[in-house]
């Protein structure tokens, strides 16, 4: 796993150096709208701590940070009205998943039918 790059765009958002469209914030977690939404609901949920990816976060964050992030994500789904209609969470990690921003984040997507999980054409 690469070292954490504190110049990544989400680190800069957390430091207030660039703006974001905040959805909600809690002790350990920030959630904001994706700048290029792929569904009517497309929220990014990120820890305030410096974690590169899914594996780093779940191995090294405290139980409180982990619970806070996932409870925040579930609360946003309820508040955005997609809990019943359905939604998808995605965490891209590393090269095969084409992770663009090296700060762990959960995509929350919903508000329309999302189709099957993966397209086969790119295989
Ligand atoms: P990933 O490929 O999983 O790393 O996804 C990174 C996501 O960050 C993409 O969906 C981008 O649209 C989103 N993104 C990049 N810069 C910003 C920004 N300044 N504010 C909100 N979302 C962003």
Summarize the helices and strands and which ones pair or pack.
Layout: H1 9-14, E1 22-25, E2 29-33, E3 41-47, H2 54-60, H3 63-79, E4 87-90, E5 106-110
This protein binds adenosine monophosphate.
Adenosine monophosphate is lined by residues 9, 20, 32, 34-36, 44, 92, 98-101.
Explain how this protein is built.
It is a single chain. By secondary structure, the chain is α+β, with helices and mostly antiparallel strands. It has one domain (9-110): HIT-like (HIT family, subunit A). The chain is built from 3 helices and 5 strands. The chain has helices spanning 9-14, 54-60, 63-79; strands at residues 22-25, 29-33, 41-47, 87-90, 106-110. Strands 1-2-3-5-4 form a 5-stranded antiparallel sheet, covered by helices on one side. A hairpin with a 7-residue loop joins strand 2 and strand 3 (41-47). It starts with 8 loop residues before the first helix and ends in a 13-residue tail after the last strand. The mean pLDDT is 96. It binds adenosine monophosphate. Adenosine monophosphate binds at residues 9, 20, 32, 34-36, 44, 92, 98-101.
How would you summarize this macromolecular structure in one to three sentences?
The chain has 123 residues and is α+β, with helices and mostly antiparallel strands. The chain has 3 helices and 5 strands.
Strand content: 15-25%
Give the strand line-up of the largest sheet. 1-2-3-5-4
Give the total of beta strands: 5
Total domains, how many? 1
* CATH architectural category: 2-Layer Sandwich
**CATH topology group:** HIT family, subunit A
- The 3D shape can be described as globular
Ranges where pLDDT stays below 50 over 5 or more residues in a row are: none
Bound molecules: adenosine monophosphate
Radius of gyration: 14 Å
Q: How is the biggest beta sheet arranged?
A: 5 strands, antiparallel
How many angstroms does the end-to-end distance come to? 25 Å
Let me know the average pLDDT.
96
State the fourth-level CATH superfamily.
Answer: HIT-like
> What is the H-and-E element order?
HEEEHHEE
Main CATH class? Alpha Beta
SS-based class: alpha+beta
Q: Count of helices?
A: 3
Helicity, in percent?
Answer: 10-25%
């Amino acid at each position: 796993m690469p070292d954490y790059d504190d110049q990544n765009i989400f680190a800069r958002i957390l430091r207030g150096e660039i703006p974001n469209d905040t959805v909600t914030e809690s002790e350990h977690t920030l959630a904001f709208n994706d700048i290029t939404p792929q569904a009517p609901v497309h929220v990014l949920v990120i820890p305030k701590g410096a974690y590169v990816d899914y594996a780093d976060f779940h191995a090294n964050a405290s139980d409180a940070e982990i619970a806070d992030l996932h409870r925040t994500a579930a609360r946003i789904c309820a508040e955005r009205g997609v809990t019943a209609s359905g939604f998808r969470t995605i965490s891209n990690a590393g090269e095969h998943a084409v992770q663009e921003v090296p700060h762990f984040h959960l995509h929350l997507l919903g508000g329309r039918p999302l189709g099957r999980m993966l397209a086969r054409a790119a295989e």
